[in-house]
Amino acid sequence: MTQSPSQDHRQHRFAALVEQLNRGEISRRQFLAQGAALGVGLTMLSFFVRHAQTTSAFSPHPQDATPEAGAAPSFGTEGKTRGQDGELKVLLWQAVTVLSPHVASGTKDFIASDIINEPLMRYLPDGSIIPNLLVW
Length: 136
What we know:
- The structure is a single chain.
- This protein is mainly alpha-helical and 136 residues long.
- Helix content is 39%, strand content 4%.
- The protein is built from four helices and two strands, in the order ααααββ.
- It has a two-stranded antiparallel ribbon with strand order 1-2.
- Strand 1 (121-123) and strand 2 form a beta hairpin.
- Helix 1 packs antiparallel against helix 2 and helix 1 (5-23) runs parallel beside helix 3 (42-55).
């Protein structure tokens, strides 16, 4: 089956767009907007964005940063005591069912139980372990 000239043109434009993203010439937001304008689905676009973040010259983004384990905030807590500002609200995409990590049924339960039961160690995205309450 042959492609129409407009489909072939869109494929070439999308390939060029992916190359620009991989070289860091356009932002993720620009890539998503231009890719959507070409008719590419968000799922496919997010795949290319994630690939570019892990394999290209992209600088780390704030949402990908891993804070040091056990580090206190460097600002905003001067002269305050624990619990002074009221209740902590956690917004999750799905409601928490249990607060025990031993019978948790998903990430939502682990996130909620982590506030109450701090683990001795934490896992980084690459699978390595860092101490949290445990000291090496």
